[in-house]
Design goal:
Layout: E1 16-22, E2 48-52, H1 73-79, E3 89-91, E4 94-97, E5 104-110, E6 115-120, H2 133-146, E7 162-169, E8 172-177, H3 183-190, H4 199-202, H5 218-232, E9 251-256, E10 262-266, E11 280-284, H6 289-297, E12 304-307, H7 315-320, E13 323-329, H8 346-349, H9 352-360, H10 364-371, H11 394-397, H12 406-415, E14 418-419, E15 427-428, E16 449-455, H13 459-472, E17 478-484
Parallel strand pairs: 2-11, 16-17
Antiparallel strand pairs: 1-12, 1-13, 3-4, 5-6, 6-8, 7-8, 9-10, 10-11, 14-15
Helix pairs in contact: 2-5, 9-12
């Protein structure tokens, strides 16, 4: 289950989860037979697999052009099996594009890498309609209309960096870029954001409206986008709205419950090479990891689940009940995101030295070893040390620029005009914007106190943030913890 966009608060977050696969019983594929497991490497057709979702949140948005407020791993997990990206990222264990799974048959660069030609494979939508270059221009016109209302939008990048689009035939797209780009960057970082959309089924402005070419004008594109984004958040109709039944991925949505339960069945018209072998794939939601673990222990219907890292001692008992254990690396980065624009505390978070002091007070090695049982990345830089391979810098391997040092944090704060009160609350003693003063917008006597909001339901997150709260107090930085359900957050 892909969780690279799963939000978590904390500088050290687990990048290895434990996956439990039932060998037999009610959760196993029915064609194996009760109590029997398939031989290693043996492909089984039919049956149902039920996976326990990562606790704390659920999918709540289905339309692929997602507003920033609805961008997260739960929605990505729902959308990607239905509408994969144009280029398929990940080829086995390597950081490369898989040409077999990608919708394009070729991508070539010319004119000093300012011209990109994309040729599509002769794949089809689930309604039998061929996938064409018009489906690309439909997506392009909508994201151009969306701007910042598309979670992936970065000013100056796609679609801003495309001066014009040409479609010489139904299978060819030519992008004329505003400047030269490194082909690897443009393919991996720009075209990987493209999800083809079915223009023949979605180019309308209301549920009962006729299909047209509305997206070809700015006003029409905005109207189509507004309609689709509104429908994309209507949980009650995810499984019944005809819009979401037109897909080109290997799966189709067959059921969806407001609590986050949903099931996928094979798209029988899927043109790609790896067609589903299961009859059904089910995602089962849980509000807490304790509830998910209890379901595993009770021998419920879960075929695949997660062993919370604070419950590693349960591994033996689960094996005895017929589950097999496997570690799963999560090549992602989690972080604490400071709100630099908060009216009250933004001025205190904006000076770099404050954030450096807060980093110096996070005891990563202790969090990794005691809370995550060693199954975690230290969070010492922007690339996962455990999974980043050649992309991990020597500085990250050595612990990063901000190693645990309360003494450094205290010295930083004192040198910038703070009266430091360990185990209490430090206050600004020297207001002003000079090099030895607290910083612009920070008033005399103001306290170093912040609220950390994080996703509830995961015991390891509670423990991690409690540890951060305790170590920040060593320099008089008070952290007030507030957990909320993921979807609320």
């Amino acid at each position: 289950m892909r969780i690279n966009r799963y939000l978590a608060a904390g500088a050290a977050i687990a990048t290895v989860s434990l996956t439990l696969a039932a060998c037999g019983g009610g959760g196993a594929p029915t064609s194996i037979g009760s109590g029997a497991s398939a031989p290693a490497g043996h492909l089984v057709n039919g049956g149902t697999v039920t996976e326990g979702e990562v606790p704390g949140g659920t999918a709540n948005y289905i339309f692929p052009i997602v507003p920033a407020t609805d961008e997260d791993g739960y929605n990505t997990d729902l959308q990607d099996p239905l509408w994969p990206t144009l280029v398929y990222l990940g080829d086995g264990g390597s950081a490369a594009i898989d040409p077999q799974e990608s919708v394009d048959s070729s991508i070539t660069y010319a004119d000093n890498d300012k011209k990109v030609t994309i040729v599509l494979k002769p794949w089809k939508w689930s309604d039998g309609t061929p996938i064409t270059s018009r489906d690309f221009t439909f997506f392009f016109n909508l994201v151009k209309a969306a701007g910042y209302n598309w979670w992936d939008f970065v000013a100056g990048e796609f679609p801003d960096n495309v001066a014009s689009v040409q479609t010489p035939n139904a299978s060819t797209i030519v992008l004329n870029l505003t400047r030269s780009y490194n082909p690897d960057f443009f393919t991996d970082n720009q075209l990987s954001d493209v999800q083809l959309l079915p223009q023949q089924a979605w180019d309308k402005t209301s549920a009962n409206g006729k299909i047209g070419n509305y997206d070809e004008t700015p006003a029409g594109a905005k109207a189509v986008l507004a309609f689709l984004q509104k429908e994309g958040g209507n949980l009650a109709t995810f499984a019944t709205d005809p819009l979401w039944q037109t897909v080109y991925g290997p799966w189709k949505l067959s059921a969806f419950d407001n609590n986050g339960y949903y099931s996928l069945v094979p798209n029988k018209a899927y043109s790609g090479p790896d067609k589903p072998h299961l009859s059904k794939f089910v995602l089962e939601p849980f509000t807490t990891d304790t509830a998910e673990l209890n379901s595993l222990r009770a021998g419920g219907n879960l075929t695949v689940g997660y062993l919370p890292l604070n419950d590693l001692a349960q591994a033996g008992a689960l094996k005895a009940e017929g589950y097999s254990l496997a570690s799963q690396a999560v090549p992602g980065v989690a972080e604490i995101v400071p709100n630099l624009y908060n009216a009250q505390v933004g001025p205190m978070l904006r000076p770099l030295y404050v954030r450096q002091a807060m980093e110096d007070l996070i005891n990563r090695s202790l969090i990794v070893s005691k809370i995550y049982g060693g199954y975690a990345d230290p969070g010492s830089g922007p690339v996962s040390v455990l999974t980043g391979g050649q992309f991990v810098s020597p500085q990250e391997k050595a612990g990063g620029p901000y190693r645990y040092s309360p003494a450094n944090a205290i010295a930083l704060l004192k040198s910038h005009g703070w009266h430091v009160v360990p185990q209490g609350v430090s206050t600004c003693q020297s207001p002003g914007s000079g090099p030895t003063e607290c910083g612009a917008g920070i008033t005399k006597g103001e306290q170093l106190q912040f609220t950390l909001v994080y996703s509830s339901g995961v015991a390891a997150f509670d423990e991690q943030n409690a540890d951060i709260q305790a170590t920040e107090e060593l320099a008089g930085i008070r952290i007030v913890l507030k957990s909320e359900p993921f979807n609320t957050l």
